[in-house]
Fold:
Amino acid sequence: GAVVSQHPSRVICKSGTSVKIECRSLDFQATTMFWYRQFPKQSLMLMATSNEGSKATYEQGVEKDKFLINHASLTLSTLTVTSAHPEDSSFYICSASRIWDFGNEQFFGPGTRLTVL
Amino acid sequence: KNEVEQSPQNLTAQEGEFITINCSYSVGISALHWLQQHPGGGIVSLFMLSSGKKKHGRLIATINIQEKHSSLHITASHPRDSAVYICAAIFNYGGSQGNLIFGKGTKLSVKP
Structure:
């Protein structure tokens, strides 16, 4: 199956710093990439949807100035958490979408665990 | 409102048992994913289906579009199957193609 990678897998940073997370589709060109956040013992929540070359669409309640998404190519999307605070500590997961006969199939990255001290 | 509900929330089984996890959704969907999340957090997509039944090894997924219901079955369960299983649906609403709505997950623990 298709492979999606994320980097880094784990990051610890100080409050006030910015953190960049990369999401790459390794063996296919992704029409769309999605960013999710998961707090402990909770379900995944969609943060934003990004298409290559256009601005990301953010879900209600997600601050676009805090969570900067850049979708530079059909195989790379980045999420930058700016001025991170402890409440931003979470598990961030990306997925990359590929069109198949009946819709979009999503392939998930392994996730990035962010801890803000 | 588009909703996905899973049951049970927690499931403990003995090795070798047949396991069923259920998922129901509120309105029409274009497709449904079954995902597996291990304790480290990484997610693996097990199945994506829009009708009928799919099988991969000891895993079987079925979906009944009319009843708005899907099931994930694990035959001859093994401790390595212990994980959280998540149902996620792609709903038929405009402008959100590909967006998934997730169930809360079923935490499966298989005892040796």
In short: Chain B touches chain A at residues 30-31, 33, 35, 41-45, 48, 50, 86, 88, 90, 96-100, 102-105 (CB under 8 Å).
